[in-house]
Amino acid sequence: MKSFSYERATSPAAAAASVATRPGAKFLAGGTNLLDLMKLEIETPTHLVDVQDLKLDRIDATGDGGLRIGAFVSNTALSANMHVRRDYAVLSRAIQAGASGQLRNKATTAGNLLQRTRCPYFYDTNQACNKRQPGSGCAAIGGYSRQLAVIGTSDACIATYPGDMAVALRVLDATIETIDAKGQTRAIPIANFHRLPGNTPHVETALTPGELITAVTLPKPLGGTHIYRKVRDRASYAFALVSVAAVLQPDGSGRVAFGGVAPKPWRSDAADAALSQGAPAVTARAFDGAQPTTGNHFKLQLATRTLAATIAQATTSAKIS
Amino acid sequence: MSCVAVPAVGANRAAPLPPVTMKTSLTVNGKRHTVDVDTRMTLLDLLREKLQLTGTKKGCDHGHCGACTVIVNGRRINSCLSLTLQHEGDRVTTIEGLGTPNKLHPMQAAFVKHDGFQCGYCTPGQICSAVAVLDEIKAGIPSHVSVSLDAPMRLTNSELRERMSGNICRCGAYSNIAEAIAEVAGQTA
Amino acid sequence: MKFDAPAGINPIDRMAVVGRAHSRIDGPLKTTGTAPYAYERHDVAPGALYGFILGAAIAKGRIAAIDTMTALAAPGVKAVVTYKNAGPLGKGSKNTAKLLAGPEVEHYHQAVAMVIADSFEQARAAAALIDVDYVRAKGRFDLSAEVGHAPLQNDSRDKSKPPSLDRVGNFEAAFAAAPVTLDATYTTPDEAHAMMEPFATIAAWQGDKLTVWTSNQMIHWTHQDLAKTLGIPEANLRVDSPFIGGGFGGKLFLRADAVLAALGAKATGRPVKVAMARPLMFNNSTHRPATVQRIRLGAERSGKLTAIAHESTSGNLPGGTPETATAQTKLLYAGANRLIGTYLAALDLPEGNSMRAPGEASGLMALEIAMDEMAEKLGMDPVEFRIINDTQVDPEKPERKFSQRQLIRCLRDGAQRFGWSARNPRPAQQRNGHQLIGMGVAAAFRNSLNITSGARVRLGRDGVVTVETDMTDIGTGSYTIIAQTAAEMMGLPLNRVVVRLGDSAFPVSSGSGGQFGASSSTAGVYAACVKLREQVAQQLGVNSADADFVDGHVRSGNRSVPLAEAARVGELVAEDTMHWGDLDKQYQLSTFGAHFVEVAVDGFTGEIRVQRMLAVCAAGRILNPTTARSQVIGAMTMGVGGALMEELAVDTRFGFFVNHDLAGYEVPVHADIPHQEVIFLGEADDKVSPMKAKGVGELGICGVGAAVANAVYNATGVRIRNYPITLDKHLDRLPALT
């Protein structure tokens, strides 16, 4: 870990200004991913701006019947919030499926959105990685890729977005609110928040330098049945092989997003529209154009079967023979 | 034999900044400490090296094992993934703050009784986590295996196992740990 | 003392302390965080500098240049140790690869340098400033590419013979003639010990004398090998390891942390402490090597095995040894015609070596699936199939009996206790909602070894007995069973015994490995206590032969004297070593068990979760049912890991284990493990030691993986022969969606 200076910001605008004006500066929220990466010098900030005093830890109702979640709200607090449990259960469940109790107590809403990939080649600084060092190549392609993405990848990167919470936020059509160094705020739909790698896998989000996430807002509740189904080898404390976030309505319509399969939470309107036709129809559309490796090809079938399990849980309609 | 010179990938070898130190204060096991630390010092290394409270263990230093679990302001965290400076004014409880060999905390006594450990290295983290887990259930915080998000949280075997899953025990004392926690929960319920 | 005839009645047989469930005497220390592990010795080495190890970035090749100037100039840095300034280093007799690379690099993450600095933060940061230019050489990294042409190893009992197959009868003819046959190949992956405490050492020199506080299972081996590596007299070295945060074979040997800490302390003239960073451990250290195992079984329609062949291929660095996955197949089942072959490929992956039950753990994962497959072909219950092929003699030397062998009882008792009769022999029949339920069984088998083991016992004026031996407690319960042994021998309650372990200044013991520790080390304590009893008797003027040591008193005839009386004029000290005769040649000494497992497989996703586990073990006298049970459940847990999730993923292009941290290398967590049940058959084996006890710490992992695998098959009807059994391997053959 390289040396860095540290400050505690006193307002969101001041925090944004501090990071924008100091080269190498970064925001520090929970730190559960950033410190992990700093120890390996995958992240090498020269200055950390701690945002814990910014009072971004509230969850409030919005005027249009939705919910506004402060950026610094912990994963535990968010998943335990009574409004979230009642109206956005898929979000509560997604968070509970991730990490461990200890990590959820520390990890924040904004930090979790910005969680970086767990690709083992990204984590090993001896290996080529375009995300870690642009232009160095991708050792994961042709390597051990069981956990990696099957769709949305490029010749430069096949890393997966590893988180659970964002998959639920995607299905809920959440919006990410930010403030920049000039005090300008904007709202970014979650669909546009995470970037596909293309030729620039090191650019992972729509955020500009110094832009600070202040909140995540949820539109008014969708009703329906909320399910987050996460599939992994061990029963807990593991990243998803495939996960499904679904909000299913009694008439068979609904929304579905997939985790563990792409560089971002994966959802498509065409796939949603096919929900009443059953899981295979949905995944045929959602994974149209997938380019799996021999090591992760199974995720396509697993996605279909996991969605079928999800639908079964909601409706008891889908079955295994 | 093919020979290829291998360039270093990824590490930024620019000359480093000199270490930055800062002062902060926090309370550990009821005792207030004011310390001058390298900004890089984690809460775990503060405890183990500076305060010489070595009961909190470093198993992986990356949040993958739970051996470093301590309780901060009533909530358990991985002290390896937290900077000391993030804890200005915080109240930290470590394994040393729960009990001593001559005056064991009920959870420590239950671990001894049920042989909920073998090598002992993950044990302080397991115990801190277990103490906090019972509080989390009492506080109604739901888990991945909670059957309902609406009903009050229940203290079942599967709840304990899920909630304790952030504490790896390679010796495999899980079955005994679950019995130790259940006993304490029964006593305090 | 030499144990060369079956044990008669002795003081241990009273079993007033031995054989009873006692909480660990080190429990209060471990549960309060006050047991000092290697890196935590602020008490003995205050003000230590911090080391941080840099690992090689390539798997094979050489260091063309190494530039430490920037690192040396970094804040707080006191020294950087590399092969260039380390001076000549030897290689430990137990090490295959060198512990400090240069100029050759033998495997990925082999240590190339250690930075020593004032603080951990400074040392870690400076390690990243070392510039190493490597010249990469072509290596062999793919075991599957070596199968079929890897050289045969010597598999006979006579190690002076050239490499050969181990044959009994005529396997080929019997296999060809058998009406029912199986020919299948199974694979097990490379596995990591992944003990919770990393390799860690504090080293301090005083003149030319070196002390290392380290984390090690085998004090004597490490004492010898560190002295040899550093080129110092053994007399100038002390190794101390009172608490070890897990080993499982990973800490049997001298490792880089101890060597580099010693070199760093020498270079700086200060104590140096180092703990290996977790991401370095998986490739830097040893692992359980992968195997490819071909098993052929031939049987009569009655189920009697007539032909058994087991051939295993593993890889290792040049100079390394094979994974002896065929070991149990020589002894587990009857059968007149047998063929055993072990092949070893040279691979340039990190060093393969012992991990909990080396040989049998991997071998039974294969053999016990094969037995399940064969039972199905025969239309027999797998429990009965094993029972009818039981043998009470060494199949290769029928005149040689097992000292004790209750495998059949383990299987029968276990089947009854587990509710085995409810198992549907047809697979994929049992449902619970969308879950597919299955039960599996496997035999457990692990040989019982004994190693020379010594101890010193002191009787203080206060009547407290202190035991000193370099034996280690790696979580096995050594402290407690040694205290129980001394308490039993001297007629004291447990709290009147103090046990001091892990110090090379103490008599050399067996150390912890090969499940020999419990039996061997307590036998050494027994021997020392016999001597102490003689001294006590002499001091008290009684005949030691008819003296009774009980309730803190020595009784002889009508006399009863407090034990402490014998030390009234001064502490009594006795030391002895247990040596072993050839009873293990006359008899086959082994431990046995049966594992029963029930799993649920999600019919949609293929996720496998273990629901119930039972082990029935026959392992001689159980010295402490509490700690022995913990050994077994721990091994069962590790076995579940091996069955369902553990795999060091090899990048065969670059030659390293890719998933080299505890997030990528998944071991079981709480949620993976149900309540586990263990039953010990009440045994006492007089051929094994005066304690009449054998080890159980490895027996528990032997066979459990196959029991899981067989349960998965029973649930799904899909036979997976490649471990770990992950959902992707059966997903395409699970029931179709409707």
List the helices and strands and how they pair.
The complex is a heterotrimer of chains A (321), B (189) and C (738).
Chain A: E1 5-8, H1 12-21, E2 25-28, H2 34-39, E3 47-50, E4 59-61, E5 67-70, H3 75-80, H4 82-87, H5 89-96, H6 101-106, H7 109-113, H8 120-123, H9 165-171, E6 175-179, E7 185-189, H10 190-193, E8 212-218, E9 225-231, E10 242-248, E11 254-259, H11 269-273, H12 279-286, H13 298-315
Parallel strand pairs in A: 1-3, 2-3
Antiparallel strand pairs in A: 4-5, 5-8, 6-7, 6-8, 9-10, 10-11
Helix pairs in contact in A: 5-9, 12-13
Chain B: E1 4-6, E2 21-28, E3 31-38, H1 43-50, E4 69-72, E5 75-78, E6 91-93, H2 95-98, H3 106-113, H4 123-138, H5 157-163, H6 174-188
Parallel strand pairs in B: 2-6
Antiparallel strand pairs in B: 2-3, 4-5, 4-6
Chain C: E1 2-3, H1 27-31, E2 49-55, E3 61-67, H2 69-73, E4 77-82, E5 104-105, E6 111-117, H3 120-127, E7 131-136, E8 166-168, H4 171-177, E9 180-188, E10 200-206, E11 209-214, H5 219-230, E12 237-240, H6 256-268, E13 272-275, H7 278-284, E14 291-299, E15 305-316, E16 337-346, H8 360-378, H9 382-388, E17 393-394, E18 397-402, H10 407-418, E19 431-432, E20 435-447, E21 453-459, E22 465-469, H11 478-490, E23 497-501, H12 517-540, E24 548-550, E25 553-556, E26 559-562, E27 572-580, H13 583-586, E28 587-588, E29 590-602, E30 608-618, H14 625-644, E31 650-651, E32 656-657, E33 676-680, H15 704-716
Parallel strand pairs in C: 1-27, 2-13, 11-12, 15-16, 18-28, 22-23, 30-33
Antiparallel strand pairs in C: 2-6, 3-5, 3-7, 4-6, 8-16, 9-14, 10-11, 10-13, 14-15, 17-18, 19-20, 20-29, 21-22, 21-27, 24-25, 25-26, 29-30, 31-32
Helix pairs in contact in C: 8-15, 11-12, 14-15
Short description:
The complex is a heterotrimer of chains A (about 325), B (about 190) and C (about 750). Chain A is built from 13 helices and 11 strands. Chain A is an alpha+beta fold and about 325 residues long.
Could you characterize the architecture of this molecule?
By secondary structure, chain A is of the alpha+beta class. Chain A is 29% helix and 17% strand. Chain A contains 13 helices and 11 strands. Chain A has helices at residues 12-21, 34-39, 75-80, 82-87, 89-96, 101-106, 109-113, 120-123, 165-171, 190-193, 269-273, 279-286, 298-315, and strands spanning 5-8, 25-28, 47-50, 59-61, 67-70, 175-179, 185-189, 212-218, 225-231, 242-248, 254-259. In chain A, the strands form 3 sheets. In chain A, strands 4-5-8-6-7 form a 5-stranded antiparallel beta sheet. Chain A has a 3-stranded parallel beta sheet with strand order 1-3-2, with helices on one face. In chain A, a hairpin with a 5-residue loop joins β4 (59-61) and β5. Chain A is globular. Chain A starts with a strand and ends in a 6-residue tail after the last helix. By secondary structure, chain B is of the alpha+beta class. In chain B, 31% of the residues lie in helices and 16% in strands. The longest helix of chain B is centred in the C-terminal third of the chain and has 16 residues, at 123-138. The termini of chain B are far apart. Residues 1-12 of chain B have low confidence and may be disordered. Helix content of chain C is 23%, strand content 27%. In chain C, α8 packs parallel to α15 and α11 runs parallel beside α12 (517-540). Chains in contact: A-B, A-C, B-C. At the B-C interface, β1, α1, α2, α3 and α4 of B face α1, α3, β7 and α14 of C. β1 of chain B pairs antiparallel with β7 (131-136) of chain C.
